[in-house]
């Protein structure tokens, strides 16, 4: 007999909501982010300008475009650009609090960081996403990809579903903003919606609509659920 996929899907939904916004795990007993590796931790000699870099995490992948000279452009949720013009403060490594507030405010920035700050100790895959595009003609030239990334540096809107770090790199390297992680996320939500046997799953979907779609907290539950169901089923 086939196992009921709903509990697994509900669990994955909650994990995705937190992990897709790039929240870094904090060490036990610590109130601060783990410091990134020291400069030189990664061998960048194999990276070329315009390469698409992937950093796999437990349940998500973070993306960036390599610009050369140990610099990576990547999109991150961040509240600070919306409330401060201090460029030196903004350029500091984004903390968990800034990330969460950026997601809530739907504000982000395309920023340039060192490879160490971008990867944060994770392993790096180079141009691994190319395999997902059967038409290799869609891969733009390396210099074109890097220039696109550089032109987008600065404050931008953020959406877990419509404008995340994966949309940014696919636009730069392939000419069209797409997110395979978002597609999988939406398929999970649809699977939960279609199985009407789980009340808990319906509640989780409602919470997801608040986080992802910015539904006002004062909205009644039917107003939250019905538009979200219709939007996902469409």
Automatic annotation (TrEMBL):
Gene Ontology MF annotations: phosphatidylcholine-retinol O-acyltransferase activity
Pfam families reported for this sequence: LRAT
Gene Ontology CC terms: endoplasmic reticulum membrane; late endosome; perinuclear region of cytoplasm; rough endoplasmic reticulum
GO biological process: retinol metabolic process; visual perception; vitamin A metabolic process
Main localization (coarse): cytoplasm
Pathway assignment: Cofactor metabolism; retinol metabolism
Span of domain LRAT: 52-181
EC supergroup of this enzyme: transferase
Stretches that traverse the bilayer: 199-232
UniProt keyword annotations, A-Z: Acyltransferase, Cytoplasm, Endoplasmic reticulum, Endosome, Lipid metabolism, Membrane, Sensory transduction, Signal, Transferase, Transmembrane, Transmembrane helix, Vision
EC nos: 2.3.1.135
InterPro entries associated with the record: LRAT (IPR042288), LRAT_dom (IPR007053)
Signal peptide segment: 1-28
Membrane topology annotation: Single-pass membrane protein
Subcellular location: Cytoplasm, Perinuclear region; Endoplasmic reticulum membrane; Late endosome; Rough endoplasmic reticulum
Record's function text: Transfers the acyl group from the sn-1 position of phosphatidylcholine to all-trans retinol, producing all-trans retinyl esters. Retinyl esters are storage forms of vitamin A. LRAT plays a critical role in vision. It provides the all-trans retinyl ester substrates for the isomerohydrolase which processes the esters into 11-cis-retinol in the retinal pigment epithelium; due to a membrane-associated alcohol dehydrogenase, 11 cis-retinol is oxidized and converted into 11-cis-retinaldehyde which is the chromophore for rhodopsin and the cone photopigments.
Family according to the record: Belongs to the H-rev107 family.
Protein name: Lecithin retinol acyltransferase
Organism: Drymodes brunneopygia
Lineage: Eukaryota, Metazoa, Chordata, Craniata, Vertebrata
